[in-house]
Design goal:
Number of helices: 2
Structural class: alpha+beta
Helix content: 10-25%
Number of strands: 3
Radius of gyration: 15 Å
Shape: globular
Strand order of the largest sheet: 2-1-3
Length: 70
């Protein structure tokens, strides 16, 4: 299960407002947490920020090197 470090809008942890590439310092950032990539709150965050991908999409790196496939 893949997990993502996120920041919630409040202590209620209902809405994700930021995503981080790694765990952050909780003394600096408020309302941090970790969610799975299939968590509904994370899906809603991706839809709002335009970062959602469909299951049929190809990862960028794979697309970038598609010329190697014959």
């Amino acid at each position: 299960m893949d997990v993502v470090s996120v920041q919630f809008d409040s202590e209620e942890r209902k809405v994700i407002i930021a995503e981080f590439s790694s765990v952050q310092d909780a003394s600096f950032w408020r309302n941090l947490g970790v969610v799975s990539r299939d968590d509904g709150r994370y899906t809603q965050f991706q839809l709002k920020t335009g970062t959602a991908t469909s299951a049929s999409s190809t990862p960028a790196l794979k697309r970038a090197f598609s010329f190697l496939r014959s």
